Amino acid sequence: DTEVTQTPKHLVMGMTNKKSLKCEQHMGHRAMYWYKQKAKKPPELMFVYSYEKLSINESVPSRFSPECPNSSLLNLHLHALQPEDSALYLCASSQGGGDQPQHFGDGTRLSIL
Amino acid sequence: SQQGEEDPQALSIQEGENATMNCSYKTSINNLQWYRQNSGRGLVHLILIRSNEREKHSGRLRVTLDTSKKSSSLLITASRAADTASYFCATDPQGAQKLVFGQGTRLTINP
Fold first, then answer.
1. A99 and B50 in contact (C-beta within 8 Å)?
2. Is B23 within 8 Å of chain A by CB?
3. Nearest CA of chain B to the CA of A42: how many Å?
4. 113 residues of chain A, pLDDT tens digit each
5. Which residues of chain A neighbour B92 with C-beta distances below 8 Å?
6. What are the φ/ψ torsions at residue B83 (nearest 5 degrees)?
7. What residues pair up with A104 in beta bridges, in sequence order?
């Protein structure tokens, strides 16, 4: 069992749909992250939240919209996605800073039709 | 862009043998971390080595860091079938406040 919980585990959506990915952690971590991972590739950072504020946006297209409602929750809102956005979306949390280990959820497998 | 390059890209060995994976990076770092990812799962943190450390051990894992060569190695001793996974190094480029992952090594342990 992982300490970072992501829902749903799988999501299939059309290009005109709006959906949201959810991530929750109860470790008191102050930093939360969204990554995108394609098959046989490393995770690519999308967004970083520190103390519930967006601190890093890696030039992600606006069809991905992150939200941090509180220190335990992180959402990723999806709208008008493209087939190339199909991937595993991973959430992680840490105490913050690059010198802390990150704890990952098991991800949401997203397929865009 | 990815900072780390790992080799080999894939490694297949017999159970009980040792497995060595290498990671090279481009810019100065504060620390380097290694993660494991089983198929269809998230990443699991294995070990962190700081830039002023040369070697670190954790159970069957041994990590070395050579900042002059900008490289690190992960040694898994007495491998087990359960070690089958992808292994990624990750660096925090100085001032970046984020991790940058290497391309990964896919390790297969044959029973």
1. yes
2. no
3. 5
4. 569 999 999 999 999 999 999 999 999 999 999 999 999 999 999 999 999 999 999 999 999 999 999 999 999 999 999 999 999 999 999 998 778 899 999 999 999 99
5. 97-99
6. -80, -10
7. A92
Q: Dihedrals φ, ψ of A26, to 5°?
A: -125, 35
pLDDT at B17: 98
Place of tokens 């087990």: B80
Q: What share of chain A is helix, strand, coil (3-state, %, to 5)?
A: 5, 55, 40
Only one residue has tokens 């995770």, namely A43
Q: Burial, B44: exposed, middle or buried (Cβ in 10 Å; 0-12, 13-18, 19+)?
A: middle
Of B92, B93, B103, the CB nearest to A42: B103
